[in-house]
Amino acid sequence: MTAAFAASNLAPPLLAQNGAHRILCLWFPYLPADRVARARWGRSWLSKGRPDHPPIAFAGRSGTAVQIAFLDREAERIGLTRGQGVAEARAICPSLDVLPADPAADRALLEALADWCDRYTPLVALDGDDGLHLDITGCAHLHGGERALLDGVLSSLFALGIEARGAISSSVGLSWAAAHFGDGGVIDTDAAPETLAPLPVAALRLPEAVVGPLGRVGLKTVGDLFPLPRAPLARRFGPLPLLRLDQALGLEDEPISPRLPVPMLSAERRLFDTVRSEDDVLALTAHLAGTLREGLERRGEGGRLFALLLFRVDGRVFRIHAATSTPLRDPQRIALVFRERLAAVHDDLDAGYGFEIVRLCVLRSEAFEAVQEGFCAGADGNGPLSAFAERVVARFGPESLFAVTLPESHVPERAAHLVSVLDLWEGGPGAGEGLGAGAARPAKSTSAQDRPLRLFAPPEPVETVAGVPEDAPKTFRWRRSFHRITRTEGPERIAAEWWIDGEDQPSRDYFRVEDDAGRRFWLFREGIYRDDAARPRWFIHGVFA
After folding, report:
1. SS3 491
2. What angle do CA 350, 352, 358 make, to 5 degrees?
3. What tens digit of pLDDT does each residue of 464-514 get?
4. The whole model's pTM is what?
5. How far apart are the C-alpha atoms of 321 and 332, rounded to whole Å?
6. Residue 439 — left, alpha, or beta (φ > 0 → left; ψ -120 to 50 → alpha)?
7. How many beta carbons lie within 10 A of that of residue 294, not counting itself?
8. Which of 315, 321, 376, 517 reaches 20 to 30 Å from 50, CA-CA?
9. What is the C-alpha to C-alpha distance for residues 101 and 42, in angstroms, rounded to an integer?
């Protein structure tokens, strides 16, 4: 059966519906070799030509054998293959340059390439260890069309020292097949069957356990599958070949999963002249924040988490996140938060030859309530304090400033929690997140006469002597130190929370005690004296000032 006949039978209306999606697949066939070549010969090594150097192979251990895991183009040209033993490869090419495989470094380079591709679309997904998927739906016109976009991506990667192959089509499977086994390029929706027909069945992303049996019965190309009845094919080879075929033809939807959250709002500036100074970056940040303000106002929201993306001309991308204690729209205040963040990451932010793209994104937002400001401060009185909290957290990190909350619990060790001020703001939308019901109350004040300033977690056992079993202790030994008690106050009985600790958890009788040196402690007896119960135990739970 010819490809034209297959196309006439496999062009249902659904292809036209899914054709609205456009997927760019990038494949890096020599990613490990490109990583080493960039380090040895510079990022422009491809344009200058490969130096006179022996072929390069990367060896990895498979069980007890050391085999070739990756090869460069020159090693493939002389006939070496993946999975070949290193000793056999050296026998073929004695000058072979064998390097240890480094999957972590290869993964880091792939992640960096994904960050670089974010300039074209925020929908970037990783494809195994050597590829990327980009959903460019609605983005191609910004770069002169799909053909110009693909040519620009491949030429830019070539200039960065990365050899890549790419294809654009209406489905992930078709783009992958054309990039890995075809000629790449831009593929129209109606051309999917004839593009797939001459390709091997491995182009459908099938494992070798499926490709081998298909080949043994004469099904070597994708076109060989077109005229076959589907039911017998599924019974013999399983549902995977038909699923992959339908995905490649656009009959089955296959959305990509972006590696990073897609921002709800974003604004960017592509610069004719690069910027390097921090003041220029902050000025652009304030300008982009003003652009985002209109979108936030339409939503009735303010930003709580922002991301500033700086694209350097050599391909490196810096992502700087800044969180706020209250929803923000004010461009100057947003820029002020990023001024502190830039000060915190100053040593790690190398502008190099400058940034060519600056992008500001809103990653999380909340409802924004407009408040009329007075002469001196905001109407709620928290404006200066929230701005101070934002600057401190932006400079020193989210674990630098905490607030105390009072959950609804009478057990002392559960009666207070420390949370970041960005997650808890009195009267603010994010108050008490993650602390459970009734936990959204900031601490007002706690009397030093009722509770000690320092609690031990967990309480520490002590040895006590009391005149009467139910009475307060007369002496106790704690941490090898003996204390004679001169004054006591109590008991204060605190029952266990049976819904958390269980019904068998004993109650506690707390005593505030003072020893002969004037030091005050908080002791408790766990359990009560009964004939049918175990002997109560004494603990110290805290110390007073």
Report:
1. strand
2. 80
3. 998 777 888 999 999 989 999 999 988 888 888 888 888 888 889 999 999
4. 0.72
5. 16
6. alpha
7. 12
8. 315
9. 20
